[in-house]
Amino acid sequence: MSKYLKYMGFLVVISLVVLWLAGVFTHKEKSVQLEREQRLISGLKIGKAEKRQEVFVSYVGNIVADNIAEISTRVAGKITDVKVKEGQSVKRGQILLTIDASDILAQSNAVGEQVKQAEQAYRSALANYEAVKKTYERYQSLLRENAITQQEFDQIKAQYDSARAQLEQAKAGISAAQFQRKAALSNLEYTTVRAPFDGYVSQKRVDVGDLASPGVPLLVIEKPPYQLEVNLPETYAGKIKVGDTYPVYVEAINRTIQGKVSEVSPSIDPITRTFKVKLKLEDGNLKSGMYAKLLLPERLNVVLVPESAIFRRFDFTGVWVVKPDNTLELRFVKLGEKRGDMVEVLSGLNGDESIVIEGIERACDGCKVGG
């Protein structure tokens, strides 16, 4: 019996210790739930995600001048003067640069002396021919009268034929010398390089002192209007027609202008599966080599948001959504193609949400949008 009482007493003691450790005998304060103070954010610009049925797909191309001339010369020589700069407008016939003409002048003078010598040789041959001709005519009369033998006549006739051949040779010598002189004078004209048409200097490849070589471009002159050359996928074959107009975005001038289709290639490249299209552009600020995008309409169901609304942190991309209670929620989105200054959202938005489009760096999760 005593063992049973000791055992029961031990259990009671153990139970009391457990209850004490559990805090049963400790005074408890009534718990109070602390509400987090809601932060008010001001200065945010709120907009709407846009749901569109039609978007513009961009295709990159280059702007080229309708008329481009690579200016070169057909004579060799040192450049003595360059009268234009890159970007300068020029008129047809305007002097662009000059080339040292001393060698050509020396050649022309030498050929001039050859012309004189050829003329002198011709006069000598002519005098000899006239003299031999008279003798030949007299011997013809004597032969008819049987006053001379046929052998004597044949000797005079050979002299006559030789004199006539020498005269023709002298005459040909004059023509050859005059032709050489004309060629030299023609080359002299190429030492002054002039603009072939009204336009502007897009490239200047030489300076004073450089050596000009025949056929090597010295300057490049361009003439408006300008065209956009772009390669389109074969899916557009038969859909793009000459005379159609489409918007063209030119990044260098940050402007969208209208382009009119002027040429459509009838063949498709078997490797790239594309065909070339040219669009005429009317804008005075365009230059060759500018980067531009042809914008073609395409029917799609897409949600678009401004690029300024995209929040990026490492691999995370999201958008700050304004909930009906005017609080902010950072929502993950999956992005698609960039379309102008808008970005396609493939998932995460329905297209009717209010979103923060400016000031996303000040936004915070759960914060409330203020004035």
Oligomer description = single chain
Radius of gyration: 48 Å
Percentage of residues in helical conformation:
25-40%
Overall 3D shape: rod-shaped
Q: Which structural class do the helices and strands define? A: alpha+beta
Report the CATH topology name of the domain at 101-190: Helix Hairpins
CATH evolutionary superfamily of the domain at 101-190: Helix hairpin bin
Span between termini = 83 Å
Q: What is the percentage of strand-forming residues?
A: 35-45%
Give the low-confidence spans.
Answer: 29-36
Number of discrete helical segments:
3
How would you characterize the largest beta sheet? 6 strands, antiparallel, barrel
- Which architecture name of the domain at 101-190 does CATH use? Orthogonal Bundle
- Would you tell me the overall average pLDDT? 82
Keywords:
38% strand, 371 residues, alpha+beta, single chain, 21 strands, Helix Hairpins, 6-stranded antiparallel barrel, conserved putative lor/sdh protein from methanococcus maripaludis s2 fold, Elongation Factor Tu (Ef-tu), domain 3
